[in-house]
Amino acid sequence: xxxxxxxxxxxxxxxDSTLALLAAHPERFSVYALSGYxxxxxxxxxxxxxxxxxxxxxxxxxxxxxxxxxxANLDIAVVGGQSGLVDIATDSQVDTVVAAIVGxxxxxxxxxxxxxxxxxxxxxxxxLVMAGSLMMQAVRQNGAVLLPLDSEHNAIFQCLPASxxxxxxxxxxxxxxxxxxxxxxxGGPFLHTxxxxxxxxxxxxxxxxxxxxxxxxxxxxSATMMNKGLELIEACHLFNLPEHRINVVIHPQSIxxxxxxxxxxxxxxxxxxxxxxxxxxxxxxxxxxxxxxxKSLSLYDLAGLEFLEPDLEKxxxxxxxxxxxQSGSVATIALNAxxxxxxxxxxxxxxxxxxxxxxxxxxxEKIAGHPEVVESLEDIMAIDDVARRYxxxxxxxxxx
Length: 400
Ligand code: NAD
Ligand code: MG
Description:
This protein is α/β, with parallel strands linked by helices. The protein has helices spanning 13-24, 40-50, 62-71, 81-89, 107-115, 125-142, 151-159, 162-166, 195-198, 203-206, 216-224, 226-239, 277-285, 316-327, 329-347, 355-367, 377-399, and strands spanning 3-8, 29-35, 54-57, 77-80, 96-99, 119-122, 145-148, 178-185, 246-250, 256-262, 267-271. The protein folds into three domains: 3-148, 3-Layer(aba) Sandwich (Rossmann fold); 158-301, no CATH class; 328-399, RNA polymerase sigma factor, region 2, helix turn helix motif (Rna Polymerase Sigma Factor, Chain: A), CATH 1.10.1740. It has 17 helices and eleven strands. Strands 4-3-2-1-5-6-7 form a seven-stranded parallel beta sheet, with helices on both faces. The chain has a four-stranded mixed beta sheet with strand order 9-8-10-11, with helices on one face. Helix 12 (226-239) runs parallel beside helix 14 (316-327), helix 15 packs antiparallel against helix 16 and helix 16 (355-367) packs across helix 17 (377-399). The structure holds nicotinamide-adenine-dinucleotide and magnesium ion. The site of nicotinamide-adenine-dinucleotide has 25 residues, from helix 1, helix 6 and helix 11. Nicotinamide-adenine-dinucleotide binds next to helix 1, helix 6 and helix 11.
């Protein structure tokens, strides 16, 4: 039976890989809806190529984009803004929602997809960092299926027994014997750079990831290792474990994508070329397997694989993420919001790369006394808003 797919964040890096797979398997998948925020020329080309039924653009672009589509004789309904994304994510015709918007902007539509009981392919890790409990509760209550696209989480998912894959509550059952999860991290472009040199890093250096080709924000997050911090929080929610049961190991070759350690001493790992088409193909076809077009891993050519302990002083963001997870949802929401503001300030050359961690640390200190009421999307967005204001004032202080 054809799976009708909505790709939210279709113009990005995950969007590219997803659409390549959907195009390669037309007998299985139909592109029902797309969304894009910037690069609307690219979105227009995707509309010409895939002819979806619906497309979401920013609110102020709805009229212009509709006109452009009708001039090209394309009968595609255009919706706008966050409400348009939510509308698509909950459309009764949609089976699968690929949540590939970057940042907090992806939260409302991902949560709505969970509430509508969809099959969700989750790339937008920020939605679990901000709303992990709410998301997992919505998934359970509405019979949604949540499949991780993040390569590490997809690797762990593949290494867990089928019963845990289907119900993460079961991880606490001794019977399954999971001791730890091990998230691998490449260490990013500055793994072997002194802190003093990292302070001078340019944007071009920061986004040049050694192994993966990704969007700008996640590339910068990889350079500060905030990405691994966000992934640690993501893993806690996805796999229903406290942060102390999840370890991080630096593995610069990015061949082992993560591991599960069992009580009998077994470590199960998933390996592959660093190419997002593998986890996306896995999640699209789960529990079956499809061809992804990824080149086979050449085991004979693999030089020694390395494993190192992360330096938490140099990569303070990773330490902050652990502390935030211990502290609770207010802290994880604030950390995510602050990080988005600080990363944007680095992109705009207002702060140094190393200021990102310092800004995040100060925002976490400031938010510490905030009352812990996180029961709805509105509560989350209110904390997000306060944290963004704190972060903006910290950015101004860094500039003085
Ligand atoms: P990207 O920057 O390449 O693409 C982001 C997409 O989000 C684009 O389609 C953009 O138009 C859309 N978008 C941006 N701001 C928006 C807004 N305000 N409202 C609506 N849409 C908006 O990013 P990416 O690398 O594809 O990453 C997407 C998500 O997947 C991120 O959460 C990232 O952490 C996660 N992820 C990416 C990779 C990867 O290899 N690229 C791997 C693991 C996880
Ligand atoms: Mg990852």
